[in-house]
Design a protein that fits this description.
The protein has about 350 residues and is an alpha/beta fold. The protein has helices at about 1-10, 15-25, 25-45, 85-95, 110-115, 120-135, 145-155, 170-175, 180-195, 210-225, 250-260, 270-275, 280-285, 320-325, 335-345, and strands at about 50-60, 100-105, 135-140, 160, 195-205, 225-230, 270, 290-295, 330. The structure holds S-adenosylmethionine (SAM), 5-amino-D-isoleucine and iron/sulfur cluster.
Length: about 350
């Protein structure tokens, strides 16, 4: 295993066999060696800088019925809300004032925003958030028409996030039964063509094999995703997977570290939406360089995998992640550093401000 890590750090391509060996890492000593290699790989690219993403789940209405998701349309136990443009802009302003680097506008596939006049409203919302905060905007609206994507791009959104969760087609059908695999993949390709930076992601603990994870790494490479993520599955009340066991954190951490070795120069999130502030340190130690799902308290906003965890306790804020970053020898980047990362990645670096 050590020789695989040395080859990875030397910039060698890792074979499927190598990746399977890394995925079978067991025990504290091997895991620590894997995490240390991932941290060295991170240090060589984004150094000790970490990017912070403010998260606004703007509508919990959804026309899809993904088996793992609290907000699936047939879940009668899931509280629904839809924020207005003014409300979203105010939340985004609060987040920007707290020094996040990006605003992630996420939603269920809400027909009110995706059908009829909805896309126009959504585009206006993006433009207002851009104008008021001056921050880059990521949109996570699910699968949308190319015209809608194009309108969102024109309104100033620069990132499109849409996670396949698995690249095994039959497992995909089991977990996202209401949406075709290809439509979801094509959306990401279309977004890239339109000039978006894109994020791909997988769920850990939904029945995938190690071979499936290796296939997902290959798919992320093929998509040339700019940000890549893994999140552990968290069982949700009122869903078909409510009584399944949650994904194991050790598995998620392993995949974070392997993502870092395979994609040393990409952004890799440590999400507060899985195990809250308590789980942040381990994810950063595994090689993550973005903290996602920062949610301001007092706004009636929900998370996704963890709809409430740590939100009203003000533990999903820039202020509360600061000490954790410092304990890991890391620090929050400046806005300029984040802008530079994005510009370089888009191949149009504008130089240092
Ligand atoms: N509706 C959009 C979509 O599906 O792309 C965006 C929002 S969706 C809720 C964002 C992501 O949350 C999903 O792609 C999935 O990775 C994650 N997620 C949803 N339910 C989860 C769960 N129970 N455990 C872990 N992650 C979950
Ligand atoms: C997160 N809850 O980062 C958010 C969400 C969507 N782009 C992100 C899954 O964990
Ligand atoms: Fe809707 Fe997204 Fe949840 Fe699927 S994962 S039910 S598309 S919010």
């Amino acid at each position: 295993m050590i020789s695989i890590l040395e080859r990875a750090e030397g910039g060698d391509h890792l074979s499927k066999g190598d990746l399977l060996s890394l995925l079978s890492t067991a025990g504290v000593e091997e895991s620590e060696a894997l995490f240390a290699a991932a941290r060295r790989a991170r240090a060589r690219t984004t150094g000790n800088r970490v990017f912070l993403y403010g998260f606004v789940y703007l509508s919990t209405h959804c026309r899809q019925d993904c088996h793992f998701c609290f907000y699936r349309r047939s879940n009668t136990r899931s509280p629904r809300y839809r924020k207005t443009t003014d409300q979203v802009v105010e939340v985004a302003r609060t987040l920007a004032d707290s020094n996040v680097h990006l605003i992630d506008l996420t939603m269920g596939e809400d027909p009110a925003y995706l059908d009829g006049d909805g896309p126009g409203e959504l585009a206006n919302l993006v433009a207002s958030v851009r104008a008021v905060t001056g921050l880059p905007v990521m949109i996570s609206p699910g699968v949308v028409d190319e015209e809608v994507l194009s309108a969102l791009k024109k309104s100033g959104a620069e990132w499109y996030a849409c996670y396949q969760e698995t690249h095994n087609r039959s497992l995909f059908r089991e977990i996202r039964p209401s949406q075709p695999f290809d439509a979801r993949m094509e959306g990401k390709r279309a977004a890239r063509e339109l000039g978006f930076l894109t994020e791909e992601g997988i769920l850990s603990g939904v029945g995938e094999t190690s071979q499936d994870v290796v296939e997902s790494l290959a798919a992320m490479k093929e998509l040339a995703s700019d940000q890549v993520r893994v999140m552990s599955f968290i069982p949700q009340t009122g869903t078909p997977f409510a009584r399944r066991p949650p994904g194991k954190i050790e598995d998620e951490l392993k995949v974070i570290a392997i993502l870092r070795l395979v994609f040393p120069d990409r952004l890799i999130p440590a999400s507060l939406d899985v195990s809250g502030l308590e789980g942040l340190k381990a994810r950063l130690r595994a090689g993550a360089n973005v903290v996602t799902s920062l949610v301001p308290p007092g706004e009636g906003l929900a998370g996704v995998a963890q709809s409430r965890l740590d939100i009203e306790e003000s533990r999903r804020t820039v202020e509360s992640v600061g000490p954790v970053l410092r304990a890991c020898g890391l620090q929050a980047a400046t806005r300029g550093e984040y802008r530079r990362w994005m510009d370089e990645r888009m191949g149009q670096s504008v130089g240092a401000p």
